[in-house]
């Protein structure tokens, strides 16, 4: 039996922010049945006023979806649910021509067949999709790494999987480092996956984008960059950070909860130097000044719970485990 950890972390929505509750639970051991994928589920009140006292609490559940279905069964229909998936690395890898391997993909192909092929399983993703259809969240956030070497056939395969998962308006997606595995591949990714990464207001495919869904503003960032060496670092870049700052300032009076998506963890000490978000300090400063209610990321292939400084207290940060991993 594969094993995984799950935790239930409770949140209460204050006058303008979602803040971590002191009643959060410690992670518990849970035996995950083979073939069941992992996801996190965020539950928010569907309607609430920023000017009133705190409404009924929300909760983030980082566990298997089978357990989430059991936990969320009593939640009334007035709640708004967001499922968080990450690092799907959708198998199988396609057959590659010799010229496709004249790049970092050669290392990726070796790594896949000698380590990751047995870990990332299609049957787990099939079960995950089936469980999501049972749970029927209002929205799904996917924080990157749907491919392994960003081959065009992998990108098309991920497109088909997302299409089968839910209507486009119910999915928000950001790319990961594996989706920009070699130079030039991210351009095709952004073109092919555009329907899940377009800004609601402008229709642009430029990051950051804004999705207004239910009671929440979902903002997507891209930390995906092509790196020629085996490093898996990410970078947002000065222009993207400046656009993010302007986006928040233009909507400062709206007082809607803001949820931030990116692939790489924005907190210090989350990963090794070769896997870090290069300009995370700049993002941390922006979050501390402008304020976000929740940050979701992937990249680490394990559930992560952290916080960043915000203008009204700590900003909760959650990372999801790999959605396709067996978890041995």
Q: How would you describe this protein?
A:
With 328 residues, the chain is an alpha/beta fold. The protein has seven helices and 14 strands. Strands 1, 2, 3, 4, 5, 6, 7 and 8 form an eight-stranded mixed β-sheet that branches. Strands 9-10-11-12-14-13 form a six-stranded mixed β-sheet. α1 (65-72) packs parallel to α3 (122-135) and α4 (152-165) runs parallel beside α5. The N and C termini lie close together (8 Å). Mean pLDDT is 78; it is low at 1-36 and 47-59.
Summary, kept brief:
This protein has 328 residues and is of the alpha/beta class. Helix content is 24%, strand content 23%. Helix 1 packs parallel to helix 3 (122-135).
